Amino acid sequence: MTASTTTSPSRWPVPSAEGPPGSGLAVLVNSNAKRGGRRVAVQIARMLPGASVRLTKSAKEIDAWLATLVQTRAVLAAGGDGTAVALINALSRVTPAGQPLPVVGVLPLGTGNGWAHSLGAPKLHACLERLAPWRGRLPTRRCGLFEVEGTLAHFAGSGWDAMILDDYRQQLEASRGPGRHFSKSIYGYLSATMLRTVPRVTIHGNPRVLIENLGDEVFTLDERGTPHRLEGAGLGTVLYDGPFGVASVGTCTEFGYRFRAFPFAERMPGFFNARIYDRSAAGAVASIPRLWKGQHPLRGMADWFATGIRMTFSRESALQIGGDACGMRRSVEYRIADRFVSMVDWRRLQCLAG
Length: 354
Description:
The chain contains eleven helices and 18 strands. The chain has two domains: 133 residues, Rossmann fold; 186 residues, Tumour Suppressor Smad4 (Sandwich), CATH 2.60.200. The chain is globular, with a radius of gyration of 21 Å. Strands 6, 7, 8, 9, 10, 11, 12, 13, 14, 15, 16 and 17 form a twelve-stranded antiparallel β-sheet that branches. It is of the alpha+beta class.
């Protein structure tokens, strides 16, 4: 007798392309979004009356909402990178192992909106206008994920990036009146960098980091940005041992505010891009325009493509995951995730919609 095999039904079946605007879409709205969660939820519900729109405050509420969804063309996160990370991790918890995650989209409502911008998302109203008449499957791009401390993410890191985020939030919390609008902008981000982070780094100097390979193959970049296998790099190989200002990992090209922190992150599917920047604070300030544009090659910048690494710091260093500050660490491990996510490609959607 020949054994028969059966395929379990998908947790996220795609519904038929019928119904009012937004049918088959589910939208998670961050109640603490920069532009006002409740007001935005109402706006989305009006423009996409067929969508399931949920305003949430916690991971528990997100899980409970996802459990009610039966069919979906896409699940969208209305917020910043932190909201998108929370949604991806919630979807991973409720999706059976071996099954793909549903299509995910990001509606830019946060501060930096790195993932949304890298996927070509316009402003919120324009996103909704493109979604409303669309029927059927949405155009997507495959995006890689890595795992850090049990969390799936698209960028994370230690050093100045995490310190700047913490300083930026402290500055924003202290802002009042007209100055608060300035503090929420890119100018507030830069002022926190120049007035808070840079002086602190100048006083204490850069710590050191030891980066060890935890996977098999490792690739580096040549001056033209072409990946090349690092010969002899196996499990336990030391990739770097020296000072650092930023020690980050990404599978997404942008960090936020259109800062191309990982310009080569999508060159090697199945790998994440680890980057080290080892210049002084003064050197970094002088290089801000080139850093922002993702210029390559750049003095003090080193890149690797790996499936697993461990970073061990000479002193406790700030950690951020997906743009959210996570406190201080002496060691952090990153591993490529066995899951990827298909993200709404806003540029293709615009082209296809004409």
